[in-house]
Amino acid sequence: MHLLALACLLDFCFVQLFKLSQRLRCAAPVVVCVNYLTIACLLALYLIVSRRLDLSGDVVRVGIVAGTAFICSMSLMTWALEVAHVAVVLVAFRLSLIVPILASLWLWNETAHVLQFVGLGAAAMGLWLVTRAGAGHSGLRGRALLAIVVAVFLLQGTSHTCLRWVKHAGLDVQHLNVLMVICLTAGVLGALRVAVTRSRPRGAEWTMGVGIGLFNMVALATILATLARFDAVIFFPVLGCATVILDSLAAHFLWKERVRLSAWCGVGLAVVAIILVLGGQ
Fold first, then answer.
1. CA 226 to each of CA 154, 229, 261: distance values in angstroms, whole numbers, following the listed order
2. Residue 266 near residue 122, CB atoms below 8 Å
3. pLDDT tens per residue across span 63-74
4. For the residues of the chain, what is the DSSP string, one character each?
C-alpha cells in the first residue's frame, strides 16, 4: 500500500512540474522530448554499467509500441489544450483511466468486485466534476471538438494500457529495460516533431526538460513496480483520484487558483471512490 501511495504522490508532483514549465512559457514539445531522452540516456547508462541491459524481442516490441503511444498522446494533449476548450480536453484525459481497466478485464481476464465497479463509477463522476470546473477558451466546437476529445481519451487510455501490458507480457523483472526503450522511442519521435516544426529550443526548456526527466524516471519506474503488485481496477482509479485531490489542493493553496464548489464536490467523490476501490479488495 505504501508503494501505491508513493506512485500517486510522484505522479502528482510530475503534473506540478509540468505546470511550472507552462508558467515559465517553455515550449511543451521541447520539454517533453528532452524529458524522454534524459530518461533513456540515464537508464541506458545504468543498465550497461550494472550489466542488466536486455533488449530481447518482447522488451523491444512492448517498448516501441508503448513509446509511440506515449509521444502521440502527449503531443495530441499539448496541441489540444491550445486549440480546444481546456476543461473538455482534461475530462477526456482524466476519464481515460477507464480504458486500461476495461482492457485488463477483457484481454487479461483480471477480476473486479461489485464494490470496485461502484468505486469506478464514483471516480469517473468525481474526475468529471473536478475537471469540468476548469477554465479555458471556447476553442473548437462540434465534430472537430468531438474528434479531439475521443482521440485524447483513446490515446491516453492506450498509453495506460501499455504500462499494464508490461506485467502481462512477463516483463516485470525487465521493467527498467522496457522503460528505457519506451523513453528512447518517445524521445526520438519527439525530436523529429521538434525538427519538423523548426523550433529553436531555449536554455530554459533544456533545463526544465532535464529536470522533469530526472523526476519522471523515478515516477515511471515506481508506477511500473506498483502495477506489478496491484490490479488495474485498483491502481488506475486510486491514481486518478489521488492526483486530482492533490492537484485541487495545490491549485487552491500553491497556485492561488479559484477552485469552484463543484470541483470540491468532485474531490469528495474522489475520496469516496478510493475508499470503495480499496475496500473491494
1. 23, 5, 33
2. no
3. 999 999 999 999
4. -HHHHHHHHHHHHHHHHHHHHHHTT--HHHHHHHHHHHHHHHHHHHHHHTT-----HHHHHHHHHHHHHHHHHHHHHHHHHHHB-HHHHHHHHHHTTHHHHHHHHHHS-----HHHHHHHHHHHHHHHHHHHT-----B--HHHHHHHHHHHHHHHHHHHHHHHHHHHTT-STTHHHHHHHHHHHHHHHHHHHHHHTT----HHHHHHHHHHHHHHHHHHHHHHHHHTTS-HHHHHHHHHHHHHHHHHHHHHHTS-----HHHHHHHHHHHHHHHHHHHT-
B/e letters for 187-204, b = 16+ CB within 10 Å, e = fewer, are: bbbbbebbeeeeeebeee
| DSSP of 132-150 | HT-----B--HHHHHHHHH
CA distance 241 to 121: 12
Tens of pLDDT, residues 72-128: 999 898 888 777 766 677 778 888 889 999 999 999 999 888 888 888 898 888 888
Higher pLDDT, 137 or 29: 29
* pLDDT given at position 54: 93
What is the rounded CA–CA span in Å between residue 166 and residue 5? 20
Question: How far, in Å, CA of 249 to CA of 271, rounded?
Answer: 13
Percentage of the residues of the chain whose pLDDT score is greater than 70 = 93
Q: What gap in Å lies between CA 109 and CA 168, rounded to an integer?
A: 10
Question: In the structure grid, which three cell numbers stand for residue 138, read together?
Answer: 471556447
Give the three cell numbers for residue 68: 509511440
